Hints:
Oligomer: single chain
CATH superfamily of the domain at 3-117: HUPs
Strand order of the largest sheet: 3-2-1-4-5
Amino acid sequence: xxxxxxxxxFDLLHLGHVHYLEKARELGDELVVVIxxxxxxxxxKHEPITPQEMRREMVAALRCVGRAVIGSDxxxxxxxVQKLKPDIIALGHDQEHSERVINQELKTRGISTKVxxxxxxxxxxxxxxxxxxxxxxxWAFTKEMERIEDGPPDMVDVETKGDDWGGE
Length: 168
């Protein structure tokens, strides 16, 4: 049985994630996905939008995933590799990991795991940042439309306001 390991944050699950995991699964018989812990996400990227256990559950629910686990909390990531014993580590096209560095470290540790970089998948919302940007843009557009539709503030007739404006 060929075990494939994929890893990532999976903060807002999207089609790019699904494509990555499906392609990773095609490399072997079992796909184990390592979900970055909240602590790791904070240290390397941003404040996570969804907590690690929720992200793990969502990924585990995907048909192509055999098992999803939370990664080490900032400790040596190769400890997770040693525990899971994958035959293949599948890297996403946009993950910053260097295949050369990973292969070198695996060799140094006596771990015979192959590292594969998967192809790019394009979709207009294939990234968490793209989704967040679209939400922010839509919100800004809605606010601008509300401002335009409401028009300029009404001119207040000071005489009709009486005491509200300090008058009699």
